[in-house]
Amino acid sequence: MKKIGFLSFGHWSESPYSKARSASDTLLQSIELAVAAEELGADGAYFRVHHFAQQLASPFPLLAAVGARTSRIEIGTGVIDMRYENPLYMAEDAGAADLIAGGRLQLGISRGSPEQVIDGWRYFGYAPAEGETEADMARKHAEVFLKVLEGEGFAEPNPRPMFPNPPGLLRLEPHSEGLRRRIWWGSSSNATARWAAGLGMHLMSSTLKDDENGKPFHVQQAEQIQAYREAWKEAGHEGEPRVSVSRSIMPIVNDTDRAYFGHERTSSDQVGFIDATTRAIFGRTYAAEPDVLVKELAGDEAIAAADTLLLTVPSQLGVDYNAHLLSSLLTHVAPALGWR
Asked: How does DSSP classify residue 155?
């Protein structure tokens, strides 16, 4: 059994072929797709965060709105770039959104990926300390965020406050009990997966990772998951960690599907450089009739190792079509693979 959800980057475009032609379209359609996914029996609605782009950015208003419109589905991010974040302000926003959703947030955070502008986090007022990298800064922000989510007091109270204070040091409010245990780290390497395990975060692995040994993408990702679980056990954490992987899976069940994705039938892994020094491997798109998909997906070692599968959706094709894709996978593919 697996949890199955969708992951939307929330692209919009003024193209006449796009069903999401503005930021307003994308935000409102994201809410409607989450509602539709819950009605279909899916388990999660996740949203990517990119800055300086015509895509979803500030996540918490959207997460709160989805939380208010749904009652069961998990709501999350995949992922928030911690280079851009004030971890204390983020903890307040996250606590509020989680309380609105009744404790259903599953927040994916990360050190981030190449963005639309050079050092975009500098425009947000952040810069690495001397001798640190931007990745160090992101991980430091993440560690502060995790600490304040524990809900312990740390701020000295004013002896003459406007309103009476509880005794002792003060914590951030609103505090949502249990949110600290629902934080995921989006990892592209085995080393950062082990680091995340040490801090007790769940693992989120996408359709891209560092090419560390030249093996097929799904094999490298399965090895990453194994390294993460070993590190979790070594750290002595209680319970079992969760692991999600993202995939582009397009069941072809009608002529519209065939027109959109028939050309992806021969898709394969790709290797390239995402910056000057990082060689990455990109996972293939799965596009075929359901019986073919069942055979192909059964051989994906990383999906087999994960407990959660996030389907990347083509947001510009609109709510109805993306709900159709989810329905096709849940109805025609998942049962045959034992995911349902």
From this structure: B
With beta carbons less than 8 A apart as the criterion, state whether 194 and 231 touch. yes
Pick 3-155+169-337's CATH classification: 1.10.287.770, 2.60.40.2150, 3.40.640.10, 3.20.20.30. Answer: 3.20.20.30
Q: Give CA 26 to chain center in angstroms.
A: 17
- Check residue 168 and report its DSSP letter: S
pLDDT at 103 over 90: yes
Residue 5 and residue 38: Cα distance in Å, rounded? 9
Q: Is the pLDDT of residue 316 over 90?
A: yes
For residues 121 and 84, is the Cβ–Cβ distance under 8 A? yes
Q: Which pLDDT belongs to residue 142?
A: 98
Percentage, residues of the chain above pLDDT 70 = 100
Q: The tokens 């709900």 sit on which residue?
A: 323
Domain boundaries, the chain: 3-155+169-337
Residue with tokens 């693979």: 337
- 112 with 84: CB under 8 angstroms? yes
Helix (H, G, I), strand (E, B) or coil at 141: helix
**Residue 282: strand pairing partners:** 208, 270
Question: Quick one: angle between helices 87-100 and 60-69, nearest 10?
Answer: 10
Examine the pLDDT at 35 and tell me if it is beyond 90.
yes
